[in-house]
Amino acid sequence: MHRRGWDQLAKWRDFRMGEGGDLWHRAIIDPTLLEVVGPVRGLSVLDLACGNGYLTRRWAREGAMRSVGVEHSRPTLALARRRERANPTGAEFLDRDARKLSGFASGTFDLVVSNMALQDIRNARGAVREVARILRPDGRFVFSLSHPCFDLDDRSGWVVERVREPDGHWHDVVWRKVRAYRDERSVDVSWDISDRETGWTTGYHRTLTTYSRWLREAGLAITRLEEPSPLPEAIRGTPQGSYMLEVPLHLVVEARFLPSGAPRRGDRALTRPGSRSSAGNRPKESPRSGSGDRRRRSGSVRRGSTTGL
Ligand SMILES: C[S@@+](CC[C@H](N)C(=O)[O-])C[C@H]1O[C@@H](n2cnc3c(N)ncnc32)[C@H](O)[C@@H]1O
Question: Which among 41, 42, 188, 254 is most buried, taking Cβ atoms within 10 Å?
C-alpha cells in the first residue's frame, strides 16, 4: 500500500495544496518552516518528498539557483510537473525514492527541506543518510514532522474536560493524552477525501531520540527546533486550532554537520523497562485526532520492527 496509497491521494492532495498549501500548511506548519529555511536566493535547494511541489516552485520563484523536488509517487509528480508546465518557475521535478537519491553527486545542495514527509517514509534512516551525502559541508537539512511526542497516530488524542469553578462558571480544560510513546511502529493512516471516500497511507512513529540519533549517525546535529503555533486563520478554521495554542502537533528541525572530528555515531540506545501509567479520571469528551485530515484507524495499527521503521 505504501506508494500506491500516495498515488491514490495525488489528485485530492494537489487540489488541496494548490500553490500555497492547505490550511494546516499555510496557517500552522509553513510559517515556521519558512522562517527556519530563510532566504533561498542563490542556493541550490532540494525538496525531499515534495508532494505537488508548491514549495519547490516557491523557492524557484524566490531566486534559488536550483530548486529540485523529488517524489516517489508518479501521479503526484505528474501533477507537480503539470503545474510547472502551466506556469514555469524553473523548478525541476524528479522521480526518486528519498532513500536512494541516485543521480545527485555528493555535496550537491546547500539546503534540503522535507515538509511533513519523514514520518511517511519507511526506513527514513536511509533518507537521512542520503540527505547528508548530497549536502554541502556547510549545508542545512530542515524538516517538519507530526510532533513525535504529541501526535502518535491512534495513541494520542484531545481530552476536553468541562470544569466548574467555585463561582459556578463552567469552562473547558484541554488536555493532550499520549500513550506508548516509546513503541515505534508503522500505522495505517486514513485521509478523509470526501464523505464517501477514504484514502490510506502508511505512517511511522519514531521517538525524538531515534530522529536525533539518525541525524548524529549521518554526522548532523540539531541546531534549531521549533514547535509551530497556529495563526488566527487556523484557530478559526479548525476546532483543534485553539487546542494547538496549548499543545503543538508539529515540529520543525534544522540540522547541520557536526564539526569534523565530532563523534558521528548515535549514542548507544538507552532502554528502560516500559511502564504503564495508572488510569486517570474519565474524560468528558475525547476527540481522537491527528494532524489535518489525518485520522488513524483505531485498532488497525500494524506492528513494525522496533528500529528502523
Ligand atoms: C504528507 S505528504 C507531504 C508532501 C509535501 N512535502 C507537502 O508538504 O505537501 C508525504 C509525501 O511523501 C512522499 N513519500 C513517502 N515516501 C517516500 C519515499 N520513500 N520517497 C519519496 N517520496 C516519498 C509521498 O508520496 C507524499 O507525497
Answer: 254
Give the model's pLDDT for residue 30.
98
Assigned domain for 186 exists: no
Question: CATH number of the domain that 83 lies in?
Answer: 3.40.50.150
pTM more than 0.85: yes
pLDDT at position 305 is: 28
CA of 70 to the centre of ligand 1 (A): 9
pLDDT confidence of residue 263: 55
Per-residue pLDDT tens digits for 219-253: 999 999 999 999 999 999 998 999 999 999 999 99
Burial status of residue 115 (CB atoms within 10 A of its CB: 0-12, 13-18, 19 or more): buried
Ligand 1 atom closest to residue 120's alpha carbon, by position in its atom list: 15
Going from the Cα of 181 to the center of ligand 1, the distance in angstroms, rounded, reads: 23
238 alpha carbon – ligand 1 mean position (Å): 24
> Where in the sequence is the domain holding 34, given as residue range(s)?
2-148+206-261
In a domain, 159, yes or no: no
Please give the tally of structural domains in the chain.
Answer: 1
Q: What are the pocket residues of ligand 1 if the criterion is a CB atom closer than 6 Å to any ligand atom?
A: 6, 17, 49-51, 71-73, 76, 97-99, 115-117, 120-121
User: Phi, psi (5° rounding) for residue 138?
Assistant: -100, 20
Does residue 222 lie in a domain region? yes
Report how far residue 226's alpha carbon sits from residue 255's, in angstroms, rounded to the nearest whole number.
Answer: 12
Is 22 part of any domain? Answer: yes
pLDDT at residue 154, rounded to an integer: 86
**Residue ranges in the chain modelled with pLDDT below 50:** 266-289, 296-309
